[in-house]
Amino acid sequence: MGASRGPRLSGMQKQVLALYRGFLRAARPKFPEDRHRIKSFVSAEFRHNSKLVDRKNFLYIEYLLRRGKKQLEQINSPATLGLSSLNLRFSENQKP
Q1: pLDDT tens digits, residue range 15-58?
Q2: 67 within 8 A of 15, measured Cβ to Cβ
């Protein structure tokens, strides 16, 4: 019988890991500086969300998965050369 490699993952955890691996695979054919930027951004985004989002907030996790899949489709497009992000910060006096 096969040995267990660790705790069993839920279906949603498997989807998150598959999405992460998909981003890493999508970065491979890009130019080296773009590849590094994509890997750094994806790693930071996944790490940020893992600390910010409650593990039982399934609706928000599903939303993040859908958003990530759309972003992955864009990165996999041959027309996409790299990745860019925009961070907006509002003070308490300003409303979006």
Answers
A1: 999 999 999 999 998 888 888 988 999 999 999 999 999 999 99
A2: no
Contact 27, 35 (CB under 8 A): yes
pLDDT tens-digit profile of 45-96? 999 999 999 999 999 999 999 999 999 999 888 777 666 665 655 555 554 4
Residue 76 near residue 61, CB atoms below 8 Å: no
**Backbone φ, ψ for residue 89 (5° rounding):** -120, 130
Predicted TM-score (pTM) above 0.90 = no
Cα atoms in the Cβ-side hemisphere of radius 13 Å centred on 10: 7
Q: Around Cβ 59, how many Cβ atoms within 10 Å?
A: 7
Extract the tokens encoding 74. 């864009």
Q: Who contacts 23 (Cβ-Cβ below 8 Å, separation ≥6)?
A: 38, 39, 42, 68, 72, 75
